[in-house]
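Narrative of accomplishments. A recurring question from our advisory board has been how the design workflow behaves on a single, concrete structure rather than in aggregate. To address it, we present the structure tokens for one chain from the evaluation set, followed by the sequence designed for it. No filtering or post-editing was applied between the two.
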């Protein structure tokens, strides 16, 4: 029997509960500045197995080890290339994950059997508190079911897992709102594997040779989720150019279908069956609210989510990446006829 969910604000007593739970091999969800993590004692195989079970995540998908500072990094990484040192120095604590050659002690459940390990030092004060009190590595994927929308509030974690998680530390809304930037420093190369709040040019200001050809998932280190069914709401999602979204929403909603829209401006008119969220033009605010907005629209009882295409510039890379994956995971593309106008009324 698992205990009921304890909502922990980080009083000392409650921190103790979380730390004891981790030591006992139980799972503790905790806030980070990016998204909430589903934490397990990184040296406890039973706890690691529970993470995969609970998420429904294939064992081949590796986990990130969270540390309170780089001081014990060499327990996890057998080699810390100069590039990694520089990036860590500049961006830790913060939304950066480094993939490094692992030490023999790192459990294969963490690495997915690979010779590398992903490590990150989060900046969220409650994550820091927990990690310091625990005194070791906490392996933590995002606290959502496999392939689903990441949680940015404690309530989202409760929605995902209910009582199955021993303890949920509530640290409020995650500041960044998207998962960390992942950079692999392996085999003499530095590769961006997942775009996040730290942009490619920010990385390159510190390490000019960062390559960006790892994102598609072709690189040696695996980043599962680079293609299908990731970050996806249950409602089919499509990305639509800004100047087509009103007409499309209007056309699709004819006949009573409810349509959800995630845009960056208010609607130009009023529409009967359109649920419209204006996430605004600023990337930080957009990212902060992104997963919460997807959850809201997913629950709005709509047949489709239309997302206004985001700007092409680099600051939007992480958002664009998550949108692309969410759209790729959607089963049904929007049917259009030959001259690219919408064939109305034939959607499921
Ligand atoms: O912001 C974040 O990174 C959040 C918070 C909780 O820290 N965590 C997170 O974890 O996003 P998760 O499990 O949802 O995503 C971790 C990503 C996966 O795409 C995984 O494949 C990749 O990190 N990864 C982990 N270990 C790796 C390795 N050794 N080589 C390449 N990619 C790795
Ligand atoms: Mg995830």
């Amino acid at each position: 029997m698992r205990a009921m969910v304890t909502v922990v604000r980080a009083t000392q007593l409650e921190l103790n509960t979380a730390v004891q739970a981790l030591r006992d091999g139980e799972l503790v969800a905790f806030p980070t500045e990016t998204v909430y993590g589903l934490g397990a004692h990184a040296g406890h195989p039973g706890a690691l197995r529970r993470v995969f079970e609970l998420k429904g995540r294939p064992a081949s998908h590796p986990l990130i080890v969270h540390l309170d500072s780089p001081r014990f990094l060499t327990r996890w990484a057998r080699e810390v290339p100069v590039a990694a040192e520089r990036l860590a120095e500049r961006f830790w604590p913060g939304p950066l994950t480094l993939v490094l050659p692992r030490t023999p002690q790192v459990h294969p459940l963490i690495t997915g059997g690979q010779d590398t390990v992903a490590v990150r030092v989060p900046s969220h004060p409650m994550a820091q508190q927990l990690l310091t009190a625990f005194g070791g590595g906490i392996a933590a994927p995002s606290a959502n079911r496999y392939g689903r929308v990441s949680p940015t509030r404690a309530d989202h974690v409760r929605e995902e897992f209910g009582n199955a998680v021993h303890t949920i530390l509530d640290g409020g809304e995650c500041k960044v709102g998207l998962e960390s930037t992942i950079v692999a420093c392996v085999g003499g190369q530095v590769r961006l594997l997942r775009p996040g709040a730290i942009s490619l040019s920010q990385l390159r200001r510190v390490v000019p040779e960062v390559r960006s050809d790892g994102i598609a998932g072709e690189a040696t280190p695996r980043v599962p989720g680079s293609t299908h069914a990731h970050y996806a709401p249950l409602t089919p999602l499509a990305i639509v150019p800004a100047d087509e979204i009103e007409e499309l929403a209007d056309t699709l909603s004819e006949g009573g279908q409810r349509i959800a829209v995630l845009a960056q401006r208010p609607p130009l008119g009023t529409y009967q069956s359109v649920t419209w969220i204006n996430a605004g033009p600023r990337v930080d605010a957009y990212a902060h609210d992104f997963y919460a907005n997807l959850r809201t629209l997913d629950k709005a009882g709509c047949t489709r989510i239309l997302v206004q295409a985001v700007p092409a510039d680099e600051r939007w890379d992480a958002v664009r990446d998550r949108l692309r994956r969410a759209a790729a995971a959607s089963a049904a593309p929007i049917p259009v006829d030959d001259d690219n106008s919408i064939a109305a009324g034939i959607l499921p």
